[in-house]
Fold these 2 entries.
Entry 1:
Amino acid sequence: MEHILSQARNIADDAEVFTVSSEETPVQFEANRLKHIQSKQSHTVALRIIREGRIGYGVSTNPEDIQGLIDMAVTTAEFGMPAVFELPSLTAYPQVDTYDSAVMSVSLEEMVKLGEKLIATVREHTPDIVCEAEVTKKTISVSIINSRKGQADYTKSIFNLGISGTLVSENDMLFVGEGESRCHPVLETKTITDTVINHLNWAKNQASLPSQSLPVIFTPNGVASTLMAPLMAAFNGKLVLEGASPIANKLGEQIFSQDLWLSDDTTIPYHPRSRPCDDEGVASRRTPLIEAGTIANFLYDLRTASLAGTESTGNGSRHGGGLPNPSPGTFIIQAANTTFGDMISNMKKGLIIEYLMGASQGNILGGDFSGNVLLGYKVENGEIVGRVKDTMVSGNVYQVLKDITAIGNDAKWVGDFLNTPSLYCPSLSVVSKG
Amino acid sequence: MLEINDIGRQLAEQLKKPNADYIEAHLERSTSSHITYRGRELESTGKTTGIGGNIRALVKGGWGFTSFNNLDDLKGQIELAVRQAKLASNKKSKLAPVEPVVDKVPSATGKNPMNISLSEKKKLLDEYNELIWQTPKLQTSVIGYGDSHKKFIFASSLGSYIEQERMDIILRLTAVSTLNGEVQQANLSLGSNGDFSQIEGIHQQIQEMAHRSVKLLSAPQVKGGEYTVVLDPVLAGVFVHEAFGHLSESDFVYENARLHEIMSLGKEFGNAGLNIVDSATLPGLRGSYKYDDEGTAASKTYLIREGKLVGRLHSRETAAKMNEKPTGNARAISYRYPPIVRMTNTYIEPGSVSFSDMLADIKEGVYVKNWYGGSTSMEMFTFSSGEAYMIRNGKVAEMLRPVVLSGNVFTTLKNIDAIGNDLDMNQGGGCGKGEQVPLPVSNGSPHIRIRRCLVGGR
């Protein structure tokens, strides 16, 4: 890396070398049986230069092709954006633990057994279900070095365990699934299979809802599939800077329910999205985004922060080897004290949304959503009575988060990007096929 | 520079004496570039080069797979893949026979983006961005351009050795307008399998898009419910991809006996006028190719003919299991993934109804155009329009906010009661399945009319 940096310095005022290497072993099950054992190694090196005041950029999978990298960076620097920021100098990083050597010591045989156990447990409950499962171990090593003496290295271990099942009958399909992702080995399957089995029980009967406005409970997965894409866009400093975020001028204003607290946090120990610094070498931190319903901060990388006259929040991320952009780390919606049972028992007639398909396919910026209830349940007189199908729910994220009247005590991880409790919304438009 | 041809030939020699029932290898060299605008200025531009490969081995019905960037120890990679396959072996997987192929396939011809300088590309995008910014009340714009050139080598223990080159171009433009905290946007997506001229000269479409984003600020939202809807060729293409295309990918069906029963050939899914095709053999589209990533020749496959299920898309493995013929639909987005069953160019064949006749007897309905996105659970699907208008008394009336439509594969296809005469293929989309996204595909249709389609709204 030093090698590339010193060569790049000959043609640039400043330079930064970013490398990421990963090694991943997925064990995949299809149709209830072991299908595939894989091993994936990858290596990427990215060079960012500042030359005559402009940014140039090149990416390669071949660390030996230094001249190729430099040529790409020089060519693009001719047209690149003006460099309005400085690369960070040597900084102190917080201690963020993301590596457990036990992950890579889990043997392939053990991984196969974990997958088999997941599938066997779910099939014991529902013999006709056809399951896919995946057990994956992975390590990722990141290094950043720049010409202003900035330097950072870290290694991460990740273990994933997940199952999805399809239950088919004449003219009906039911999909259920659950997974867990951590920096430690996930060797316990019960939490996952209990969740899947719970949904299989709730979905046994079918129920229908009339087309009208109804109260809705968003489970943690429901929150993720319905409300998160617009929020993640709205807090992106770049969209704020452009005025394309509807909350761009609302810093310090209360526009959500005063019970709502949201933060972005990449410092949680042993969480797969945690890291000591972002992809530009800026220290990680916890950034409050909504405090008691009030907009507290937006998320920035170096360049956007500089244009906005503020500081990077350590949210510069490179997706697919591209240039850094502001990007959420991990969103945390703070849990409150209502139990999921209480939310249901207070409902005369309403809907529980576990997955709303298509909700993030509309005008995400404006916050309007509309989707098909792929997995959801009807509640009648305080009881879950069955699964709802051929039903669409529409609303606006900003209205929903202003209207919520209860926040659950049941916070859980959804994938690795969100930790949230269930949310209770008193009224949403529900349309069903009559 | 490493030449993958030399490595490929050595590799082919090693595969001649496989220590497995079947081994295949992919090598890939790629170069790509991107240009992004946000607001008035070019925001980022960069270039990427990549080289990598994979080995896939089958031993007693179990698969092993390795992918890598370092091509130094291919023998070791083969051994690792075979070892993994042995561990996974449980008689699960077998392969339908295909003839070994030795061939060399150049990329499509046209205005080659690899021969166009960055400054020339920038000049065109500057023009487009300037057009968007001429629109009064515009808040901001986003333009994303990307092109790539890939050279692939496929070698298998059957003796196949195929060199293929493919190019891909994608251009997506967005105009964003705001008013009193309301934000609306309009999009335009185009693509090509290597002809830069396909994204030139679209000034008028861009102007219309930018004006639409402003007009949407004052457009009402539709009242949710069941409507008669008319889909333009672009959105109808997304519809056929989501509503039926994914369900015809056999990897979803081949090991699920009950689903196989439901998806038995001959089953009626639509009216007699409905014909749905997937074909990688159409020339010059983003989903076109000569051989898939298992070295099987591409084919034209009727999925629905006269309303009945008559075919499905296969890899060698799904074809073997279902006792059908491989269709050449095993595709991977890159060497980092094993091939899975995917669509190519998917479309509804044209009928004979004119657009005005289609509207004529609709008292109240919704006309939907362009796309935001679509997804499917196989049974249920959603697809969202980029533009929507009320239809009143047989005429396209006031503009609406974009809508999300939803359907159920077992009923919605039967509710198609008119198929237009104006087939058009849309090249601006990409397809996602599992982790493998975006895969270049195209889809298309003439205008179609669907009765009793569920439309989300207030």
Entry 2:
Amino acid sequence: MTVRVQKEDFDVGAEIAALRRADARVGAVASFVGVVRDMNEGGAVEEMALEHYPGMTERSIEEIIAQAHGRWKIYDALVVHRVGTLKPTDQIVLVVVTSAHRADAFAACEFIMDYLKTRAPFWKKEKTPSGARWVDARVSDDIAAERWRLKG
Amino acid sequence: MIKVLYFARLKESLGAASEQIALPESVSNLHDLRTLLIARGGVWSEELAVNRRIRAAVNQSMAAEDTAIADGDEIAFFPPVTGG
């Protein structure tokens, strides 16, 4: 598995190619890309700053990937999450999962993303026309993560 | 000594990113530590008040209020996470 937290942007094509390179067992690659929107909670967002807890953030994502390995037949997984200042249309997060068949890849990719949203220590602060504000955690994200307790 | 870290909204409002605290005998778990910090009053009692949604980690793992803490531990307090 690979987990990276970085300020730099990432190249989705290159990351996917690197993850599945030379592994002829791979029949499915599922990926998710999270992107900064220009609206949140009905207000305009000019830019956002992402903070994390170095060490714990990487470790918690590794634990989430390890859980995914325990629940689905996947070969490898990659998570790249950006920190620092981001603007609307910028990529924030990439999750890539490889497996033999699509069902495992899709499920594991969604699981990793849902768990990351509620368990990995990142915090967003948005800059809006009326000032900066910390983004509040969403109940819908808790519900999305909670679904996985009933499945798998 | 324990190391205590604060992140995001907490770091800003408390005006502190990290500090070293000599662990008093009365403090044996996360709940005790939070109570000790609340007793400082002012922004501490406001931001760490029991009705505020605060998460905590002990040695970089998410931890519940009754998690034991000991000398040399790294403790962190932060708001619910909002990544992704």
